[in-house]
């Protein structure tokens, strides 16, 4: 015991310093341990909500009127990039007597167009255009107001989008025109207007 007392007297200061250091070291270690074991809560992430208005899909189909020497003449709905051949196939194909020399099967169709397949010796009606080899709109070619599409009607001098619609509406309600002068029955087509475009038209 005397020996221990002597050692304590000699190394008391060093023991106190060492003990204090060990206590501080232990406290630091415990603090880090508690910090590492603390549960981590996920912070909510606020995402911006984007409101998208529904857009009206564009039409991917066109409407064409197939007439002449086909099995089932009528109105057909086809893909937007369809060709004359597809319109004729939809109408049941051509009749045996059809004159295909005047028909361009590869020509692309347009909405509200008339596809006409003629018989041998029959002249292709002006304004149909969709099936002709050369296409429509020749400088001296008259437009048949009974079979012309909206696009063909708009090629007439003085006929725009609205007037073309009026012609189509009148044709749908009253049937085919008996004469060009019958256009006078449509609002916006006066006597002078019809007289100016008469040379461009046929029935």
From TrEMBL:
GO BP of this protein: DNA repair; protein secretion by the type II secretion system
Pfam families according to UniProt: HHH_3, SLBB
Record-linked SMART domains: HhH1
Domain Helix-hairpin-helix DNA-binding motif class, residue spans: 151-170, 181-200
UniProt-recorded Gene Ontology molecular function terms: DNA binding
Record InterPro entries: Competence_ComEA_HhH, Endo/Exo/Phosphatase_dom_1, Hlx-hairpin-Hlx_DNA-bd_motif, RuvA_2-like, Soluble_ligand-bd
UniProt GO cellular component terms: type II protein secretion system complex
Top-level taxon in the UniProt lineage: Bacteria
Name the record gives this protein: Helix-hairpin-helix domain-containing protein
């Amino acid at each position: 015991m005397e020996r221990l007392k002597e050692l304590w007297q000699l190394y008391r200061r060093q023991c106190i310093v060492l003990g204090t250091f060990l206590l501080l070291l232990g406290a630091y270690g415990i603090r880090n341990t508690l910090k590492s074991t603390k549960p981590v809560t996920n912070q909510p992430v606020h995402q911006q909500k984007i409101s998208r208005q529904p857009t009206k899909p564009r039409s991917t189909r066109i409407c064409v009127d197939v007439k002449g020497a086909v099995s089932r003449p009528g109105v057909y709905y086809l893909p937007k990039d369809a060709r004359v051949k597809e319109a004729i196939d939809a109408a049941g194909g051509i009749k045996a007597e059809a004159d295909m020399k005047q028909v361009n099967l590869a020509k692309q169709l347009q909405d509200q167009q008339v596809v006409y397949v003629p018989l041998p010796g029959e002249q292709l009606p002006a304004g149909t255009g969709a099936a002709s080899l050369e296409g429509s709109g020749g400088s001296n070619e008259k437009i048949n107001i009974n079979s012309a599409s909206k696009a063909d009607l708009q090629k007439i001098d003085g006929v725009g989008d609205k007037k073309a619609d009026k012609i189509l509406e009148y044709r749908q309600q009253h049937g085919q025109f008996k004469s060009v002068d019958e256009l006078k029955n449509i609002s916006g087509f006066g006597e002078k207007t019809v007289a100016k475009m008469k040379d461009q038209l046929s029935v």
